[in-house]
Write a structure and sequence with these properties.
By secondary structure, the chain is α/β, with parallel strands linked by helices. It has one domain: Response regulator (Rossmann fold, 3-Layer(aba) Sandwich), CATH 3.40.50. The protein has a five-stranded parallel sheet, with helices on both faces. The radius of gyration is 13 Å and the shape is globular.
Amino acid sequence: MPKVLIVDDSQIVLNLHSYIFEEAGFECAGAENGYLALEMLNREHFDLIVTDVNMPRMDGYELTRKVRKTPGYENTPVIMVSTEEEAKDKMKGMEAGANIYVVKPAEPRALIANANMLLASV
């Protein structure tokens, strides 16, 4: 069962994304900011990271850059989910190391399809 770390400062979004992934057979854990996410990544292994962009203390771009420098996570798939939909925002996400950038609200089937596609290529 693939294990997903969902990072979002909104408890509602954390719960929604956890529900979507759990219904599709994933095991989920949540963190409300990038600092907590990094702590969790150092304690246990995750197969996929789904992160919001706009969060206090450490945004999703910075989190993704740090994930890419974390031993064992250099190639772990990262899906960024954000309300920011301009091309420059998507480009910034890709430059930070995200594999896929999705604009909120994320369509559940597309989110799971993207996750499965990324995990199949790892």
